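Q: My labmate handed me this sequence with no annotations at all. I'd like to see what the chain might look like in three dimensions before we decide whether it's worth expressing. Could you predict it?
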Amino acid sequence: MTMMGVIPAMVTPMHSNNQVNFRALMKYAKWLVQYDIAGLFALGTTGEGLLIPRDDWARTVLVTVQSAEGKCPVIIQCGGASFPDTQWRIETAVESGADAVAIIAPYFYRHSEKALERYFSEIFQRWPEVDFYLYNIPVYSNNVISPELFGTLFHRFANLKGIKDSTGSEKSLESFVRAAPDAVVYTGSEAILQEAYELGAAGSISGIAAALPEIVISAWKDVETEDFARAHQLKEAVNLFDSYSTIASVKAVLAELGFDVGKALPPLRTLDKSARVQLVQALADIGLDIKKLNLNS
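A: Here is what I predict for the chain of 297 residues:
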């Protein structure tokens, strides 16, 4: 199973009591799979997966898989701070029918590369039938998955299929591609979409695509034909989303499109009405008029 192209890193809709809004999640997932996406990525950074209690987390996996209806693969981010936490998530995702599992480095404590190698090796050995993707996001995990470690693991374990690199660094992405030329390498940064394609990446696992799938898909397809205008526009959008907080911005745009996604879980930021209006106007100023996109169909 090779997923080439754009994979939205989904948000998780919430009620005002901070519990997952499963009705809204079903509607949202069904909307996303209408587009020419390569898959769905759930319960990652944009999906606030590490903040969601176990009962809601497990049901979120099941509802996402069921809502996709087999129209595209579903990847669930299962990495936790400890092995038992990660183990529970993997078992839950597999039992619910997820197509693949993503794993961040265990977060908070710093670990040596040798410790990370043992940790990931145990996971891949314990679930040989599961397709895995590593998820390199050191700004949040506090641990770097090096290209050398990725290459070593990829050549050792057939069930390690690839990696999502969210460093936003062209050099880092290129190093992952070179470390394992046969691996599936995704960028987590839409700002380097053009560069990712030129370096041989398989696509992007994209937070912005969680709200504007057609825009990111168009940018990727245009890059394939050496039309870079949409990719440059996307860079401007990334800067805007980042300036307000990416998760808050994605949820704000989805709310503008008519989705009941609710607020980000505390203490994450949620945009107030004034900031939301400013974001929508700023996006319109770069040619992304949310009110004219009519994406919620």
